[in-house]
Each structure stands twice: as structure tokens, then as C-alpha cells.
Design goal:
The protein is of the alpha/beta class. 35% of the residues lie in helices and 26% in strands.
């Protein structure tokens, strides 16, 4: 029997407590990125193709990128790693942080993301092997941090210089239960990005819930109109906003998203 977290009974702070208690990074990866699964094929075929095109264009590069993700989703940084000297990865719970550290240290029981690295290398023209790709990102992954987007500094007590690229993958919309909360969290997290820096967001469209194992969690339901307004209202100029319709024809009882939204914007002013 599934355990449902009721949206009307859950604040952002108590939702974080439940994620701390129940979120299993390995189970999350197995649910959504297991090789050959409908979710994995949807993500790889669509999102990674767009990311590879964006980063290989040379428009997004610099010294430091920080990636924020619900789970231990370092694989989203595979297309970016050649274009930054340092990559910082922030995740939402202690369990996911432990999984990231295991992967960074290449421990025997670390998460297997080799099939994603293989796809990225193939689409990039096999400039390096998938093992070299993973070694490259491990060498550039200087820090793994835990975040809380409702704080003014989401990585407190750590204080960092503003970065060149802020990369959000399935992040704000799983931690905030209202559109006002989403906008507040976006403003908080944007304080980490320098003016002129790049914001990249991967957001699921019209999702109301997501599951891992027996746990069903609420997901803030968003569309491209709201996303566009939320970003521009705090001083970003949108370069691209791409909507990629869902191809996975199964597993609607696990996640009911209708499309991926990929946004690329530049920070013009401090929000």
C-alpha cells in the first residue's frame, strides 16, 4: 500500500523532514533512470540531446557550475563537465549526499550511471570514453552539499562566491507547494549566480505527484507560462524555453508529467 503525503497537510519545512526520512537515492535512480526503462529512455532521448546541443554551442561555460537536484543526479552534469573547471553538486537529503560521495570516490557500491555516460559520449562524437567522462567529472566535482531552498542562502552555512552557471534539475517544484513559494525559492537560489551568469532548469510540466517505492509525494503543477513569468520577474532574460512532450506511454501511476520543460536564461539584474 502506498503512503501518500497530502499536499494540504504539508508545509515546505515538514515536506523536507519527510524527504530526509524516506528519500532513498538508489531507489530514486532505479525508479527513473534504470537502463531501458520508459522514464530513462524519455530523459536520455530528449533532455540529454538538448543539453548536449546547448553546452557544445559554447554559450554556457566558465569557472564554476553548481547543480541542484532532488536526488543524487550527477549525470545531468555529464554534458557540462568539459565546459567548467569546477562543478559543485547540491542535493536534498543526507542519504542522497552519501550516494554522491560514494560515486565521487568511485566506491564499489556506488550508483551505476555508465549507460548515461555512454550515451553522452556517443552523441558528443566519442571524444572520450564513458570511463574517461566519469573520471573527468569526478576530478572536477570539488564539493557535494546539502541544500534547503527555503533558506535565503540555500547552502548555508557554506558561503561561496557567485558562480557562472546555476543548473536546477527537478528541484524547486518538489520542495515548494505553492507558486508563491516557488518564486521565493527561485529568488533565494538565484543569489548564488553572478550577473550575466547562466540559469538552466529542467522542470516537469503539469506534474501533480511523483513516487519512489511505496511513497507518493506532491509535486507543484507548473506550465511554461508560469515558468517564463517567474524567471523574468526576478531579472532574467530567457534565451530558450523548450517543451518536450512525454514519450513514455506507461508509468502514469508513478509520475503523471505531460512534458519536460528546459529553460536557459541569463541573469541581468539581482532579483
Amino acid at each position: 500500500m502506498e503512503n501518500t503525503v497530502q499536499e494540504q497537510e504539508t508545509s515546505s519545512s515538514s515536506l523536507q523532514e519527510l524527504l530526509d526520512k524516506y528519500l532513498d537515492g538508489k531507489l530514486l535512480l532505479e525508479t527513473y533512470l534504470r537502463k531501458g526503462s520508459g522514464f530513462c529512455n524519455d530523459t536520455i532521448d530528449q533532455i540529454f540531446s538538448c543539453l548536449i546541443k546547448l553546452f557544445s554551442s559554447g554559450r554556457v561555460k566558465g569557472n564554476t557550475m553548481i547543480q541542484f537536484s532532488l536526488g543524487p543526479y550527477i549525470y545531468y552534469s555529464f554534458p557540462a563537465c568539459a565546459y567548467f573547471k569546477e562543478i559543485i553538486v547540491a542535493t536534498s537529503t543526507n542519504n542522497c549526499l552519501e550516494e554522491l560521495e560514494k560515486w565521487r570516490k568511485n566506491e564499489a557500491d556506488a550508483l551505476d550511471m555508465s549507460h548515461i555516460a555512454e550515451f553522452v559520449c556517443e552523441r558528443e562524437g566519442n571524444r572520450e570514453t564513458w570511463m574517461e567522462k566519469q573520471s573527468m567529472i569526478r576530478s572536477k566535482m570539488k564539493k557535494a552539499l546539502k541544500y534547503n531552498v527555503i533558506k535565503h542562502n540555500p547552502i548555508a552555512p557554506i558561503v561561496l562566491p557567485q558562480v557562472d552557471c546555476l543548473f536546477l534539475t527537478h528541484c524547486l517544484e518538489v520542495h515548494t507547494l505553492t507558486k508563491e513559494g516557488f518564486c521565493s525559492a527561485l529568488k533565494n537560489i538565484s543569489s548564488l549566480l553572478k550577473p550575466g551568469g547562466a540559469l538552466i532548469m529542467i522542470v516537469l510540466k503539469e506534474t501533480t505527484f511523483y513516487m519512489f517505492g511505496k511513497f507518493k509525494f506532491p509535486h507543484l503543477c507548473l506550465d511554461e507560462g508560469f515558468l517564463r513569468k517567474a524567471v523574468t520577474d526576478i531579472g532574467y532574460c530567457i534565451e530558450e524555453l523548450t517543451v518536450l512532450p512525454r514519450k513514455c506511454e506507461e508509468l502514469f501511476d508513478v509520475n503523471d508529467y505531460t512534458a519536460f520543460m528546459m529553460l536557459y536564461a541569463r541573469k541581468e539584474t539581482e532579483g
